[in-house]
Amino acid sequence: MLSKADDYPVHQRAEPIATAGTDRNFYDRYFFNAQSPDGTQFLAAALGVYPHLNIIDAAVCWMENGKQHSVFASRILNMERMNTHAGPIAVEIVQPLKQLRLQLGETDGLSADLLFEGRHHPIEEPRFTWRQGPRTVMDVTRMTQNVVAQGHVSVNGVRHAIADWRGTRDRSWGVRPIGAADPQPAVPVALPQFFWLWAPLNFDRHCLFFHSNDHADGSAWNRSALLVDLESGAETKLAAPAAQLSYRKGSRRVSEAVLSGNGPGGRVEARLVGGANFHMHGIGYGHPSFGHGAWRGDLDVKAEHFDSAGADVASPGNAHIQSLVTAELRLADGSVHAGRGVLEQLFIGPHAPSGFRDIFDPA
């Protein structure tokens, strides 16, 4: 089937764009977050396209005072990947690689109209390819960009002006588990293990990006640290990236972290202190009812309220979070810069440096 996108010179294979290879798990997603300067208010959103499932879904979540207020929407894609809207939620590319608009029509008392503008050119992260034996579980490319958000969010009749809020947006595409779970597990059967740490950080004159996917022994299968100078636009890939983590006792949640790497002039270090935790199921990640790519009918729109502050930290369903962090960046020249960001965490199974031995045993 031909679609609107086929009129753009963006083809990668000798097929219409509606066909993205043969893997049913192919996806294409937008992600956004932004927080108030003091970290007391937070917004996150996602919109995903699943060409071979013929589904598009989206979610927007507002978090304040330990409460998450989410709107989830899903519809049949009808093979038109250029129609980036689902129910009341829409993403508009205003200026590619620079400005994107997110809108949520009023639903259950929540509405939003935000413009996200990049603080720098998007970075391309190292390709994520992860296999279990011969089976490819993940094969993903992601571009990430720290942003400034402008606009407004209305919550139960209260209008919040969003002025120069900093945050992050990304675009990822490729293959990862979506929709219904595979009924046939990879063999031989092994204890589930996935260690994911991601820290996009905003400072006045710099942005720092750190992520790590670790094996059970703590060695990384994908780890990177990149420093962006906002005045020059220069990107510096830091050598020997490393993370020192302190966990809250009785949980798998990081209380403090030191992220580091070596630049041409010496060591670069960021010290993070965790604050409020945003639960990623608020925008569909791992949600039991509104998970990404789930078939929910021709059109489905639902709202949900969640007590993030009172959530059970031991529940596997609450394992995937973004901790709102304060950050202190120390550059090789000795200068120190204050900033904010998030520290995304998803720790499943063993991780020797953290002392984890089972699927969800706590620190």
A few lines on this structure:
Strands 1, 2, 3, 4, 5, 6, 7, 8, 9, 10, 11, 12 and 20 form a 13-stranded antiparallel β-sheet that branches. A nine-stranded antiparallel β-sheet has the order 16-15-14-13-22-21-19-18-17, with no helix packed on it. It is an all-beta fold. The chain has no helices and 22 strands.
Polypeptide structure, described:
38% of the residues are buried. With 363 residues, the protein is mainly β. The chain has one domain: Beta Barrel (AttH-like fold), CATH 2.40.370.10. It is built from no helices and 22 strands. A hairpin with a 2-residue loop joins strand 3 and strand 4. Strands 1, 2, 3, 4, 5, 6, 7, 8, 9, 10, 11, 12 and 20 form a 13-stranded antiparallel β-sheet that branches. A nine-stranded antiparallel β-sheet has the order 16-15-14-13-22-21-19-18-17, with no helix packed on it. The model has no long low-confidence stretch (mean pLDDT 96).
Rg to the nearest angstrom?
Answer: 20 Å
CATH class, named Mainly Beta
* SSE pattern: EEEEEEEEEEEEEEEEEEEEEE
How many DSSP-defined strands?
22
Number of folding domains? 1
CATH topology: AttH-like fold
Q: Tell me, rounded to a whole number, the average pLDDT.
A: 96
CATH architecture: Beta Barrel
Chain-wise SSE layout:
Layout (H helix, E strand, L loop, with lengths): L25 E10 L5 E10 L4 E10 L2 E10 L8 E2 L2 E7 L3 E9 L2 E9 L4 E2 L3 E5 L2 E21 L2 E18 L18 E10 L2 E9 L5 E10 L5 E3 L1 E9 L6 E10 L2 E14 L19 E9 L13 E10 L5 E13 L15
Antiparallel strand pairs: 1-2, 1-12, 2-3, 3-4, 4-20, 5-6, 6-7, 7-8, 8-11, 9-11, 10-11, 11-12, 13-14, 13-22, 14-15, 15-16, 17-18, 18-19, 19-21, 21-22
